[in-house]
Every structure is written in structure tokens, then in C-alpha cells.
């Protein structure tokens, strides 16, 4: 697995190779000349060496591997951009100049939601409302429909976007009346297809700080007691505002490598246990608490609190689709489920944002009914916010596990002590794991890296502690924070850690793009594998692994996958302008990965490796060539084939800038 070091060029058969200019000229001609032309050109192109065809932007990447790594993982980073205003201030990389792309900015005149919902007279804002209330007026300026069929109407018999739907002609009757197919609509009545929605009531409670966190509070009280925790680091929060902001945004407090034996850890088999452990495994902490005020908590629930009796996470040997900020949205996960992903996880959610009831953060917890083994991933730096958040989710959403992101490398989170900085703050890390584990009925899992610094692996030291603290599973991404994506994942080290973790399951993660990669990974003794970029580049990788084959998937099959994604997107984000443009944005983000796929039939030898750059090549047909383009304008073209023309003044700069060169 840990073979090839530096990234080479993928071995595309010579007859498919072409030059940058010819590649783009062909696409510009809209593929009018057809496939024959492409293969004729191939003959001439045989002399074109990889060197000549190497995209200039990628050449730079080779010279400067650190930059490449940064840009790759800016994906994770930039993914947070829109949600957290603070992050927008970051002035790193070209994404800082990313234009504001709020979808509603494409719509000058929007119809008031009160009208769409058929109760215009009840518009809450009255005369101050800035939206239109007259349907005729709205229809006069509404942009043309994007298609004749509305996927929502066709699927559910009803399109809740009514006149604002960009496919509204499919369901508008006389006087713009929204037609409903009663028979079909009835079939869906009462069925909840997406779970884990944030109710207005809960949002209100959170905003007014009315939600009660009995279990977390009890745990945090115990943590604050002077003898409770080895007499050190007892404050659950980094500051009085409960960890929302760390005043001193400096480096993490402890040193990773040579940290002395942890003060909190009990020596094997010896008493006394740390208070946190007592409160989780022994009943006294809970029996002492005012159970009557705990709402609908039964004895059974209390007993469940003991991590020793927690439900086991049955995911041995399963294929786990990694949490993926921005790209791992619900429509994408539905695609991966169809192709055989067993376990799915929501995009990383920031615990403090969830505690504040932020809708955009709660959206990351949504679960499609096809996601049968589903978890959510949390990020945070302090025991109080993380434990409270775990209790909040335990009471309000349905998940099979909760994962802590202790692998996140991005500066903003790292500097606050979250993400992989937690690997160097084992005191806080322990308090977080124990606290969350105590309040959760479902298993707690932890995703880590090899360490922070490139040559200093620390995972093997931390894993036994994580097991001790009560986590049910660890996922190890075989790279350090400093490495980002510059080197291959260290699977020998992952194997070592899997042994150390036993009997706790350990999932291995890094660089899997083929069933051979997957087989090698499994042979390293891990309990299962997690796949991230491999799924973005080719979501059918799960099928390939399960069926142990290379799938030479045709361009039309691939195009159909994109069609399904856009339909899922319209269902999820909406079929009005806002929803369409959101769908387009996430499609474009995904396309920046998809273009790295090289069709099986074009390769000189199999399989494609994740660290190899695709050269310029001609596909076997126009669409195959189009989908190989790394040019953002071609991705936009693909989006237009699926979602109609982009609005005027449309701009898109992918979060993964490494892939957006022309
Ligand atoms: C676009 C993108 C978004 C990611 N978002 C997350 C995330 O939200 N949480 C997380 O733990 N890891 C995230 N990662 C890291 C992956 O889960 C995974 O650990 C890493 O990409 C290595 O696996 P791979 O070699 O299969 O890509 C992200 C990676 C990418 C490429
Ligand atoms: Zn209004
Ligand atoms: Zn519709």
C-alpha cells in the first residue's frame, strides 16, 4: 500500500493522449466532430509525451508539494466558509477572493413564502415585507422554467415550491394553481424520508438557552471538583463563554510526543478511578441526581448510560463513506448508498453552532432514510460544549453513532484546540470523550490522524487511552496534520495501530481508489476501511470493492449518476431558484473531484492510483472527454446540461483550487 512516493502521471494509453490545446479545442467545438475525429487525432498524438501534456498548474504542484497539500485540504477548510463568518476573514489561498455566491442573489424579485404557502394575507412582516405578494407580478419577472418535468411533482405528486419552482409548468393549472396528484401524494403521506430536522421549538429553546442539560451538567460539576480529575485541567471550558472562542489563539497547550504519563489515567486495575469514569460506570452519580426532573427518562435509560452496556457498533468489515465537508452532503451520500456504501456520516458540525440552534449547522445532521448505519461528526475543543452537544443530540436526533473529529487540520479549528490539536491536549481530550460517552446512548467513535508533526507519530500512544475512555471505535487517517495530502498514507503504521487498538475496532483511512487498494488495506488487519476522495472521484468504488472488479462505466452511465444527484439535490435543497443554484454549487464542487476519474478502458494498466495525475486525454465520446476536463467552465457546462443555463453574473470558484486550472 505505502509504495509509490511522489505522484506520477496516470498511465493512459498513448492513443488517447492529447495536448492541452487540442483537448480544449475539441471541447470548444462541442464535440461536433465526433469520436472518429478524436481517435484520428490519437494517432498523431502518439508522440506527445506526458511531459508535454502535463497541465501547468499541476507541474507547479509537483515542485511544491506542500502547496499542493494545502490546496487539497483547503477543501475541508473552505467548506466551512459560508457557515462561519469568522472563517471568511482568513486570508489564505486564493479562495479569499471567492465572490459571494448566495443563491438568492440571483433573484431580484422573490415571492413571499406566505404566498407560496397559500396564506398571503398572513404575511408576518406586513407592509415591511420586501418580497412580492402578487403572483401575476411575480410571474411577469420570473425567469423561464429550466425544464418541463418537476422531479418533486413526479416523485411525490406534489411540489411544495408551487409557482416558485423552476419546473413549475409541470404542475401549474389555471390561475397558477398548484396541481396535486392526490393518488401519488397519498402514498407518501406521513412518511418521513429525512430525519433529524431542527424544529422551530427546539431552535427557540436553544436560542433562549432554555434547553436543559442534566447529564452534562452533572458530569461537568464533577469535573470541576478539585479532586475529581487529578488536580489538573479541571475547568471544562477554556473560557467563561463556554469555549465558543478561545481568547489566545495560539498553539495547543500540551506537547504531543513527549507528554508525561497522563495524570488522569488510572494505573491498570488500581483504584481510585477518576471521577469521570465513576460517574459513567457507577450508578451513584446518577442516582444522586434528581431523576424526576429529567423528563421522559426511564430506569432503562439510566441503565443504558453505563458505557459498559452501550449498544455495540456492528460495523466490522463494512465500507465506510468518510465524513466530507461540503461534498459529503445528503444527496451525495444517497448516491454512495446506492453503490454500496455501508456506513455514512454527516459533514463535520461545529458543536457550538449546534448548541446555538444554527439552522445551517443542524442541516448537516440530516439523515436520509436509506442511510441505515448513520452517524454525525462533531468538532469542538472543550468538554462542556462537546458534552452538552452530545446530550442535546442524544435527546433530539436519531443516529447510530457520534464521531469526534480529531483529525481536522484546518488552522481555524486547530488554533482553538479542536480537530487534531486534541491529539496534543490529552487532558481535555479525555474529558471530552468520557463526557460525551457518558451522555450518549449510542456508541462514540473518534477519527484521528497519525499525529500533528510529520515525523512524530502519536496515534499509537493515544489509541489505548481512547479505548480506555470508552470510545467504541477509532478511525485512523494515515497521515499527519503537517503532511496533508502530500505523501501516501502510512498503512504500515495503520496496521500497527490496529493491533494496539484491539479489541476496540480500528478503521483505516487513506488513498483507497480501487478494490485492490481496499483488499490490501483489509489485509493490514483493520476492522474496516473508510473512503473519502475515492468516493468523490468514483462513487461506484463501493460496488467495485464488493464485486471485486474494475467497472468500465460508460459516460452515459456516469451522466445518469449526475442526473440522479441533481434530482436528489432539488429534492433536498429545493426546486426554486435558491434550491437549483445550491444544487448546482454542490454539483460543481463534486465535479472538481469527478474529473480526476480516468475510465478503466483508457488505462494502459490497472488500477488508477489516487496519487497519479491524469494527463490530457480524449475520452471515447464527447461526454467522456467533457467529464475529464479540469476546467471550471466545462464543469459549468455540465451543470447547464443538467440544471439549465446559469443565471446572469454567475461565478464559481471551486473550494479545491488545485483542480480548477485551465
Ligand atoms: C473535500 C473533503 C472534505 C473533508 N471533510 C472532512 C470532514 O468533514 N471530517 C473529517 O473527519 N474528515 C474530512 N475529510 C478528510 C477525509 O475524511 C479523509 O480522512 C481523508 O480525505 C483521507 O482519506 P482519502 O485518502 O480516502 O481521501 C475531508 C476530505 C476531503 C477531500
Ligand atoms: Zn410577505
Ligand atoms: Zn416543482
TrEMBL record:
Record's catalysed reaction(s): a 5,6-dihydrouridine in mRNA + NADP(+) = a uridine in mRNA + NADPH + H(+); a 5,6-dihydrouridine in mRNA + NAD(+) = a uridine in mRNA + NADH + H(+); 5,6-dihydrouridine(47) in tRNA + NAD(+) = uridine(47) in tRNA + NADH + H(+); 5,6-dihydrouridine(47) in tRNA + NADP(+) = uridine(47) in tRNA + NADPH + H(+)
CDD domains, per the entry: DUS_like_FMN
Keyword Transmembrane helix: no
SUPFAM superfamilies per record: FMN-linked oxidoreductases (SSF51395)
Cofactor(s) annotated in UniProt: FMN
Superkingdom field: Eukaryota
Enzyme class per UniProt: oxidoreductase
Compositional bias of kind Basic and acidic residues: 56-70, 77-88, 259-273
Enzyme Commission number(s) from the entry: 1.3.1.-
Annotated Pfam families: Dus, zf-CCCH_DUS3L
UniProt keyword annotation of 4Fe-4S present: no
UniProt region (Disordered), positions on chain: 28-103, 222-275
InterPro entries in the cross-refs: Aldolase_TIM, DUS-like_FMN-bd, tRNA_hU_synthase_CS, Znf_CCCH
C3H1-type zinc finger locations on the chain: 106-136
Record-annotated C3H1-type domain positions: 106-136
Similarity section: Belongs to the dus family. Dus3 subfamily.
Cited function: Catalyzes the synthesis of dihydrouridine, a modified base, in various RNAs, such as tRNAs, mRNAs and some long non-coding RNAs (lncRNAs). Mainly modifies the uridine in position 47 (U47) in the D-loop of most cytoplasmic tRNAs. Also able to mediate the formation of dihydrouridine in some mRNAs, thereby regulating their translation.
Official protein name in the record: tRNA-dihydrouridine(47) synthase [NAD(P)(+)]
Species for this entry: Apteryx mantelli
Amino acid at each position: 500500500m505505502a509504495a509509490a512516493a511522489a505522484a506520477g502521471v496516470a498511465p493512459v494509453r498513448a492513443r488517447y493522449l492529447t495536448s492541452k490545446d487540442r483537448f480544449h479545442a475539441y471541447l470548444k467545438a462541442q464535440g461536433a466532430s465526433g469520436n472518429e475525429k478524436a481517435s484520428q487525432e490519437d494517432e498523431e498524438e502518439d508522440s506527445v509525451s506526458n511531459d508535454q501534456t502535463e497541465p501547468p498548474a499541476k507541474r507547479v504542484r509537483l515542485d511544491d508539494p506542500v502547496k499542493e497539500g494545502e490546496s487539497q485540504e483547503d477543501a475541508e477548510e473552505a467548506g466551512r466558509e459560508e457557515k462561519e463568518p469568522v472563517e471568511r476573514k482568513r486570508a489564505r489561498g486564493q479562495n479569499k477572493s471567492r465572490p459571494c455566491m448566495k443563491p438568492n442573489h440571483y433573484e431580484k424579485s422573490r415571492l413571499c413564502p406566505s404566498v407560496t404557502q397559500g396564506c398571503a394575507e398572513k404575511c408576518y412582516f406586513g407592509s415591511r415585507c420586501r418580497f412580492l405578494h402578487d403572483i401575476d407580478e411575480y410571474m411577469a419577472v420570473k425567469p423561464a422554467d429550466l425544464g418541463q418535468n418537476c422531479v418533486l411533482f413526479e416523485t411525490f405528486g406534489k411540489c411544495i415550491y408551487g409557482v416558485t419552482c423552476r419546473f413549475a409548468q409541470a404542475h401549474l393549472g389555471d390561475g397558477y394553481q398548484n396541481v396535486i396528484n392526490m393518488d401519488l401524494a397519498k402514498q407518501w403521506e406521513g412518511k418521513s424520508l429525512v430525519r433529524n430536522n431542527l424544529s422551530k421549538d427546539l431552535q427557540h429553546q436553544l436560542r433562549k438557552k432554555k434547553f436543559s442539560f442534566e447529564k452534562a451538567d452533572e458530569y461537568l460539576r464533577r469535573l470541576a471538583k478539585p479532586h475529581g480529575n487529578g488536580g489538573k485541567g479541571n475547568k471544562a471550558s477554556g473560557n467563561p463563554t463556554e469555549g465558543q472562542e478561545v481568547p489566545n489563539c495560539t498553539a495547543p497547550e500540551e506537547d504531543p510526543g513527549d507528554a508525561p504519563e497522563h495524570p488522569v489515567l488510572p494505573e491498570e486495575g488500581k483504584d481510585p478511578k477518576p471521577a469521570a469514569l465513576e460517574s459513567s460506570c457507577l450508578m451513584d452519580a446518577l442516582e444522586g441526581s434528581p431523576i424526576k426532573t429529567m423528563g421522559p427518562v426511564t430506569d432503562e435509560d439510566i441503565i443504558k448510560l453505563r458505557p459498559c452496556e452501550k449498544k455495540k457498533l456492528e460495523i466490522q468489515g463494512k465500507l465506510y463513506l468518510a465524513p466530507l465537508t461540503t461534498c459529503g452532503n445528503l444527496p451525495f451520500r444517497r448516491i454512495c448508498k446506492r453503490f454500496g456504501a455501508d456506513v455514512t456520516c454527516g459533514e463535520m458540525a461545529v458543536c457550538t453552532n449546534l448548541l446555538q440552534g444554527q439552522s445551517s449547522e443542524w442541516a448537516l445532521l440530516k439523515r436520509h432514510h436509506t442511510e441505515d448505519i448513520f452517524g454525525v461528526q462533531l468538532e469542538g475543543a472543550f468538554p462542556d460544549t462537546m458534552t452538552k452537544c452530545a446530550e442535546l443530540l442524544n435527546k433530539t436526533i436519531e443516529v447510530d453513532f457520534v464521531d469526534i473529529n480529531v483529525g481536522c487540520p484546518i488552522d481555524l479549528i486547530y488554533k482553538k484546540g479542536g480537530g487534531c490539536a486534541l491529539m496534543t491536549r490529552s487532558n481535555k481530550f479525555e474529558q471530552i470523550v468520557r463526557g460525551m460517552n457518558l451522555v450518549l446512548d449510542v456508541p462514540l467513535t473518534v477519527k484521528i490522524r497519525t499525529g500533528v508533526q510529520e515525523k512524530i507519530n502519536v496515534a499509537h500512544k493515544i489509541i489505548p487511552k481512547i479505548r480506555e475512555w470508552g470510545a467504541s471505535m477509532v478511525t485512523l487517517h494515515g497521515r499527519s496534520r503537517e503532511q496533508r495530502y502530500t505523501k501516501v498514507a502510512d498503512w504500515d503504521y495503520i496496521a500497527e495501530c490496529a493491533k494496539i487498538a484491539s479489541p476496540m475496532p480500528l478503521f483505516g483511512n487513506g488513498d483507497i481508489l480501487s478494490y485492490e487498494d481496499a483488499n490490501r488495506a483489509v489485509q493490514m488487519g483493520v476492522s474496516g476501511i473508510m473512503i473519502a476522495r475515492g468516493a468523490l472521484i468514483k462513487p461506484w468504488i463501493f460496488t467495485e470493492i464488493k464485486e471485486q472488479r474494475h467497472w468500465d462505466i460508460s459516460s452515459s452511465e456516469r451522466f445518469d449518476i449526475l442526473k440522479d444527484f441533481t434530482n436528489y439535490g432539488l429534492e433536498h435543497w429545493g426546486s426554486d431558484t435558491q434550491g437549483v443554484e445550491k444544487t448546482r454549487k454542490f454539483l460543481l464542487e463534486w465535479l472538481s473531484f469527478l474529473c480526476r476519474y480516468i475510465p478503466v478502458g483508457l488505462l494502459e494498466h490497472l488500477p488508477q492510483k489516487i496519487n497519479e495525475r491524469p494527463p490530457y486525454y480524449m475520452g471515447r465520446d464527447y461526454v467522456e472527454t467533457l467529464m475529464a476536463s479540469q476546467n471550471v467552465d466545462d464543469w459549468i457546462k455540465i451543470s447547464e446540461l443538467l440544471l439549465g443555463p446559469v443565471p446572469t453574473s454567475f461565478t464559481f470558484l471551486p473550494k479545491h483550487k488545485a483542480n480548477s486550472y485551465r
